[in-house]
Amino acid sequence: MELLQQKRFWIFDLDGTLTKPVHDFAHIRDVLGLAPDADILRAIEEQPEAIKRTMLAQLDRLERHYAALAEPSEGVIALLARLQNAGCCLGILTRNTKEFAELSLSAIGAASFFKSIDVLGRDEAAPKPSPEGINILLNQWGADKTQSVMVGDFHFDLLSGRLANVTTVHVDASPRHWPEDTDIRVDNLFELSDMLGY
User: Fold this and answer.
1) Preceding peptide of 129 cis, ω within 30°
2) Integer Cα distance of 189 and 104 in angstroms
């Protein structure tokens, strides 16, 4: 697709996008005592300081467990290699911590595609759907927003891209869809790779 052929700056969500979905968010909410539909990070942030520290420690233990279980999405290595070989800048923006993001990237064999400074977690930038992380990465790269892409599997990923004024790609084979915040929708990373012009 012509829309993607000139893109040189690529930011990816991690869980469910570059990795197969492994996080059991219903279980995480249950362990943390949160409502079934709660935004986990926002709900924790709203707690008193002592409770917040305890909940964040619990969340860290759960995320470490899931990070170690990460498996690559089909086509991920081929896609990243193709982008890297074309000279593209590659970044990660996740609501997890940077430590666990790098653990997941190692688990799926993709760590070599990303410089550590280009992996942002919830401690490096306001969590998605805030566009802050995207803007940090684009500033680091000296990127032109018209040549930049945010790729993810959930609405927060797409909304952050929309708020940052970059092209948004929704990767998801399920019926979930947020057309108002999606520029391109693909079922998988193979389909995305086929749209590249390099």
Assistant:
1) yes
2) 18
Instruction: Tell me how many domains the chain contains.
Output: 2
Are the beta carbons of 15 and 172 closer than 8 angstroms?
no
The backbone region for 75, taken as left when phi is positive above 0, alpha when psi lies in -120 to 50, beta otherwise, is: left
CA atoms within 13 A on the CB side of 41: 16
- Classified as helix, coil or strand, 154 is coil
Which pLDDT tens digit goes with each residue over 50-92? 999 999 888 888 888 887 888 999 999 999 999 999 999 999 9
pTM of the model as a whole: 0.85
Q: Are 106 and 138 in contact (CB under 8 A)?
A: no
The secondary structure of residue 50, as a DSSP letter, is H
Pair (50, 13) in one structural domain: no
Given a contact cutoff of 8 angstroms between Cβ atoms, the answer to whether 171 and 151 are in contact is yes
Give the residue from 35, 51, 68 where a domain finishes.
68
Do residues 124 and 180 share a domain? yes
Whole-angstrom Cα distance, residue 59 to residue 12?
Answer: 22
